[in-house]
Structure formats: C-alpha cells, structure tokens
Specification:
By secondary structure, the protein is mostly helical. It has helices at 2-11, 13-36, 67-76, 88-97, 110-115, 137-232, 236-286, 291-313, 319-328, 338-487, 490-501, 517-540, 553-583, 590-615, 617-633, 647-651, 655-668, 674-704, 709-715; strands spanning 48-53, 58-60, 63-65, 82-84, 102-106, 128-131. Strands 4-1-5-6 form a four-stranded mixed β-sheet, sandwiched between helices. A two-stranded antiparallel sheet has the order 2-3.
Length: 719
Amino acid sequence: MLRQEWKKLFSNRILLVVTAAVIIIPAIYTTLFLGSMWDPYGNVGKLPVAVVNHDRPAVLDGRTLHIGKDLAEELKGNDSLDFCFPSEEDAEKGLETGRYYMVITIPEDFSENAAALTAPSPEKMVLQFKTNPGTNYIASKMGETAMKELKNSIREEVTRSYAQVMIDKAAEAADGVAQAVDGIQNLDTGASSLAGGIAEAGEGGEKLASGTAAADESMVSLSKGLSVLEEKTSGLPAAASALDEGAGALTDGAQSISQGLDTLSTGVSDLQEGADALSAGLNAVTGEGGAQSAQLRSGAAALRDALGAIISAMPAGDNSAGNSSAADSGSGDTADTPGDLSDLTAELSALQQQAAALSQGIDAYTAGADTAADAGLQLAAGVTQLQAGVDSLRSGMSDLNSGIISLRSGTSSLAESAPALTEGITQAAGGAEQIQQQGTLALRLGAADLDNGLGQLGEGAADLKNGTSLLASEAARISSETEIFSDGSREQREEIVDMFAAPLEIEEEQVTYVADNGHAMAPYMMSVGLWVGCIAFCLMYPLTSCPGKPGSGVKWWLSKASVLAVTAVLQAAVMLGALAFFDGFEPERAALTALTACAASVAFMSVMYFFTSLLGRVGSFLMLVFMVVQLAGSAGTYPLEISGSFVPYLHKWVPFTYTVTAFRSTISGGEDISGCLFFLLALTVVFTVLTVLEFRIRAARIERGDRTLIGWLEAHGLA
C-alpha cells in the first residue's frame, strides 16, 4: 500500500501540483508576512513628518538662545524621520490626508521658557505634536517613539545651555565657596565653644536648681526674721526720740567739759609757772649740782671736828665741877681758871653735840633739798606732760563735739525716719512672705525647667557640633571639588557641561542577539506558517481514501503517513530556504533551527492527521480554531506578563508555546531546547499512536462491512 500511495501521488498531476503548492504555503506565508515587517524600525526614517517653527530667540544671562531654530536645523540633518518644513496650513492639510503622519509645532515662547529656567517661577518648554492614528496607528506610535527621542535631544540641548551658564556662575562662586568654608570652620569652632558653654551652663543650671531650693528655705527664714524684726522695732520710734534727747544732754555735757578743760588748761599753765619757780628756788638752795649742800655738810663736819679738838686740848679737871661752875658762871666774866675751863669744856661739849646735831640736820636738809630738787624736776616734767595731755584732751574734745553734733543730727534723722523704717520693715515682712509663697516656688519650678531646657539645649548643641563638623568636612570637600570651576581649563569646563547635558550613558549587554524585527517575529510566524501548511495539506490530500479493502490498518496508516512526513519535512526546508533567500534570515544556530522546524512540522502534521482522518473537514476546521487559540495563548508577540488575563491558563497547553520558545533560542543563540524537542516528540508519538489505532479500528469495521464515522461524515458532505 505504501508503494501504491506514492505511485498514485506521482501519477496524479493535479494532486502532485496541489501537494507542491501546499509544501510552499509555509514559505509563502512566512516570507511575505515577515518581509512586510522585517525591519520596520530601520525604515522609520521614511515616515514623513512636518515641522512648523514659530519660535523667537531669547536671552539667558547674556547668551542668546535659538532653541527652536537650532532644533529645526538639527532635524534637517536627522534621518530618524523624514522631517519636512512646510507652512502651518500645508502641514495641517497633509496630516488630514495622510501625507504627513505627524506635525511638530515649535511655539513662539519655546526659547523664552528655556531662558526662564532660573527665574523664580519658570515655565516648562512645550513642544506640540499632532498625529492621526486613523490613517496608520503603527506609524503614529512610531512617531511618538521618535518624539521621545526628540524630547531627550531637546532636553540635552537646553541642559547644555543651562549648564554652561551655571558653570560660568560656579566659577564666580568658587571663591565664595572658599570663603564659606572658612566661615563654616569658624562656625564649627563656635559650635564647640557653644557646646562647652552650654555644658557649663548646665552645671550652673543644676546649681541654680539646688540654689533656688536653698533660697526658698532662706526666704522662709527671712520671713520669720522680718516678723521678729517687726516685733522688735515696734518701739523704735520711742527709743529714737529718747536717744535724740540723750544726744541733746550729751551735747550740753560736752560743752561743760569743754569749759572745764579751758579752766584746767589755765590752772596747768599756772602750775607750770609755780613748778618753774620752785625748781629755781631749789637750785638756789642746793646750788649748781648740789655744791651748796656739800659745803654745808663739810662745814658742819669741820665745826664738829674743831670742837672735838678744842675739847681734847683743854686741861683735865673735874669736869663735873668745872662744868657746874661754868654753868653757874656762864653769864659772868670769863677767867682762865679751872672752874671756868670746866664750864667752857662743858659748853664746848654741848656745842660739839649741837654741831653734831647741826651736821645731822644739814645732812637731812641737804638730802631733803636734793629730794625736793629731784621732785621739782619730776614736777616740772609732769606739768609738761599734763599740759600736753590737756592739749590732747582739748583736741579730742573738739572731735567729740563734732561727733556729738553729727550724732545729734543722726539721732534727729533717726527719730524722724523711725516710723517709716518700722513701716518699711512691716512691708518687707509681707513681701518676704509673698516672695516665699509665690516667687521662690516659681523660681524653683523655673529653675527645674531651665535645667531641663539646658539639658535639651546641650543635646542640641552636641547635634549642632556634629552637624557643623560634618558641614565643615563636606564644605571642605565641596571647596576642593569646585576648584575646577575657577582653576580648571576651558576644556575641562566643556567636559563638565557635556556631562550635565547628557549625564547618563547606557551600556547595553545582550545575552542573546536579534538582528531585526524579522528575526524577532520569525519564531511566531514560522510556527503559524507550518500549522497553516499542515492544515492545507490535510484538507487537500485524500488521507482516508483507499482503493479496495484496506486490509491492514497499520499499512493503510503508514502509506498515508509516509507522504505526510515527507511533506512536513519539505515544508520546513522550503520555508527556511525561502526566508534565507528572500529576507536574509540568518539564525545563530542554523542546524538546530532546521531540526526544530522539521520536528514542529512533523508534530503538527501528526495532530492534523489524527483529527482529519477521524473527523474529515470538521477536524481541519477544529484545527483552524485551535490555531487561533494558540495565537493568543503562545505569547508569540507580546510578553506573557502583559498579555490578556486568560493567556497564562493556555500558555503551557498549546504546541506553539514550545515551538516559539525553541525557535527563539536557536535564532538568537539562547538556552537549551531539549525540553521543547522532547515535547514535540511526545506530541508526535501520542497522536501517531492514536492515528494508528483509529486506522486499525476503521479497517476492521470496513472488513466487517460496518459503518464508520468517516463514512457517515462523507454521506453528509462533511468529510
């Protein structure tokens, strides 16, 4: 039967042509469809876009900006789109007719708004563009993509101008930054001092808090003391009056004492004169240095001695008789008679005794005179001292009088002020009590709040110190980094401007490589093309015809399956060849791509073979419907995550998922495809087994003459 089937195919030219046409269907589908979208993004430059410029120049810090004009000039040399520069009227008409896919309008204030970026209330630059999606939606979307690129270009240009101005100003501000660094360093030093001062103030606050407690206790004592003072000073006015009266009496006594001192001074003067006279008299008596007293004593001694010699020289006799006779005749004439001598001797003896007594008296006199002289000298010195004392006393009395006058004045003032004093003490006592009850309590509470506040202030000062330290370090760093603005070369500044204008550079690394949109869409379109080719073949080729009785169902199946398998492989090969020849298809792994295409085509044909042989054209129709399901569920165009909510439920159960994945990997050089190939192999085996069973059952029923499902469908025009 296998040979007959192939003989029949080659003998039937129409069937052969149909088979050949079916073989190239996947090639036609994929080549034409992919060719129409092979590289649309590479041909965006052919899309006509109208540009209308109304912009007027503006001034930014002495620099004239022509943002609109510069943009138009840039677009003339830009091949991202086919930029045209018609009139506004022509542009609007061309957009309506589809001659232009987009109209870009640069307004009058475009440059003005760019120059106002540094103003207090800057206005955004507005670039207007119109599209007409009704003429071509994809073209409008491509235009929007181009506008995003244009927006970036404009942003870069504006940023460049703005950065140039800012860099120039930064160069001027670099010196100010250096000065600011010095100021910040001074601030840091001040913050350190502040922190130290607040720490000391905190200690003082603690002392104040404790001091206010002591002050409160002291005010209690003061209040009590003032109360006692008030009691004690209640009699002060009367005592002050009595004191004033006593001061008056003291003044009178002082005046009396002063008069007595005048009298005493006069008496002392007289005493001084008497003392002087006495001293002169004593000097006259005693002589200079006591010479007269010495002469008296020596004379008395000589007299005594002479009388003794006289008595010794007189003749001896009855001294007693003689003495008596002498005594008796003392008043008569004298004769040198023994009686007279006795009397003389007696008289001389008496005279000698008197001389001795005189000598003793002279000694006593001279001793007394000497003593008196010494006493006179002492008296004179004492009178002199007394006079000096009287003078000192008079001087002191004068001071006393002055003091008494001041005392009198003070006591008078005291007597006058005593009532006010007592009233003041009373008020002070009341005020002290009020201060103790209100003031010191508030002071104590305030001191506590002050202590807490100082603690918080200390924490804040510490934070300030840390902040100023950080600010100082950062300011120093900024100063070093801004040196380039003042000291750097023009080239360096230009590099900085370029950096600000385009601060981001994207470095892309592709794990896999897709050359263009054609290669990107090929996995999806190749899967669809092979499925469509299999459906077309199963519709056009007589899969269920059998000349005569089929006999063995396996041989019947094999005869048809051989043609299907060869056709499936040829479909895949022709499709890949056509893509390579007409569209420039170049997969990264060509051999694996060919293997995947053949495996997918054979698997699809196995599925089609089963449903078509079982249900005829109904089966082909069901496969057409299933293809639509696969188109949605395979996520062949858009990522699974942004597809419809139903797609994840279908994704794992449709063959397209695995063929698209395998083709993407082989075309771009991605991951291993062994899992996908295993799925296609399993799909082929499962449906081959089902088809073989279906053919055996059908052959057995034909052999028995029973009706078959395909016969019933043919009878109703459905096979």
